[in-house]
Design a protein that fits this description.
This protein has about 80 residues and is mainly beta. It has one domain (about 5-75). The protein is built from no helices and five strands. The mean pLDDT is about 80.
Length: about 80
Amino acid sequence: MRRDFIYFGVDCRNCDARIPLVEVISAPHIYSWKLPPIDIFIVTCPTCETKAPYKQLDLVMVLLDSPATNFVTNEQFERLRF
């Protein structure tokens, strides 16, 4: 049985890599999530090492079939609990 790992993340503006920022849930289904307002946050791409500011509208759902390797929750999202 496949187990999906769902994250909120962003797409790198330089290399289009999907960067997971916070794990939402480890489950086969997700329906909807409501986020509180989030301030502008800085993300460094692990692939091309570009550092860029992002805002809440830039967030995307990142679906992985295994946990993100060397994953560390982005500090802007540490206070969120799902």
